[in-house]
Amino acid sequence: MHAPTTKLVLLSVLTLMIISHASSLRFHYTNSHNFTTKTSTPSSSSSSSARRSSRNPSLALVHRDAITGATYPSRRHAVVDLVARDNARAEYLTRRLDPAYQPAEDLGRSEVVSGLDEGSGEYFVRVGVGSPPTEQYLVVDSGSDVIWVQCRPCDQCYAQADPLFDPSSSTTFSPVSCGSTICRTLSSSGCGDAGKCQYEVSYGDGSYTKGVLALETLTVGGTAVEGVAIGCGHRNHGLFVGAAGLLGLGWGAMSLVGQLGGAAGGAFSYCLASRGGSGEAGSLVLGRSEAVPEGAVWVPLVRNPQAPSFYYVGMSGIGVGDERLPLESGVFQLTDDGAGGVVMDTGTAVTRLPAEAYAALRDAFAAAVGDLPRVPGVSLLDTCYDLSGYTSVRVPTVSFFFDEGATLTLPARNLLVEVDGGVFCLAFAPSSSGLSILGNIQQEGIQITVDSANGFIGFGPNTC
Predict the structure, then answer these.
(1) CATH topology of domain 8-41+295-462
(2) What is the pLDDT of residue 303?
(3) Which residues form a coiled coil (predicted)?
């Protein structure tokens, strides 16, 4: 009886690129008769209040490190800072997506709770606000709905990289009335001076933005989108890394995708450029792409009524090499009361797995790499290796098995993160609950399309 073979990919220690025949991204169907591969997605019949030109707006998606210009004494210090932000984000999501979660009741009359935690925005886009457009950096958040920017006059504002938006200088700024349908879309409605709709977005750490809800023109990728409901924040508190505000891309009606409706087809796609690579930006495209990448597969989205802004996917298991991990059935299941499940999140870097699943992944990975020199972990990254003496090493593949038969096998560079001086750590960590979070390190370099109108998420080939 032959010992089972372990599927390996060759990892260049210097470049973190796959250089063996096991190329960037591979999809496999284990149950093809129950799974339909789409070459395109059907058009949406959703109505839209916001209007745009016919072409799909495209934006450069920039990692926060390129915006802040932060410098660290060493790569290790940068990773420790990343992990600290990441822990805050993951713990907030864990609280927010707990069925027992109750938002604070004393934060104002019109509260909307977002997935963004203080200082944890990882990716930014450049958006023009108003007419003529005032260029602003906005944090991209796939777990949030409300779009907002800091506004003049500002009673309380944090420091941002760009000048504050002045609504009095825009010819298209139009405050929303208290009795409007848009105002009532908020979880509760507030009424300010002259019958203007007040909004408030609060975050789990006490940061917030408060102000007036208005219709405004946003210029995204050179395309003017008219009549977008945004928050014009006159009282803001938090560490938003110099960004002027937030661009919500969640599944709710107030997100940019939700507001565009039929205009964008209820869909968007993004590609996260690899950090520490060539320095090139990734991309964010609103609407359906006319050219769906060859080899893309589509996985059904799962709706969580307890957290309708978040994009969940049905996942049934994980594999390391050629072996599917022997996990308890239902470890990734979203329960009827909204607990557990697997959520896609651009704001979390390191993928979180339930403790049982993470331990099995870690142990199988360590067994497969054999005698590579192990070194102490760095914060929550507990599986680390000193590869400074190697030109290249072979590491096992890691695969996500989704419901209905699709398997996503990650590129080698999406498995390990460099900490310092040739030390690399497995970029996975245990969750403090049954919630799983697919983080942005595992999403890097993969074209991802979210079709919320039809309830699918697509993973394309390695195109970034």
Answers:
(1) Cathepsin D, subunit A; domain 1 (2.40.70)
(2) 95
(3) none
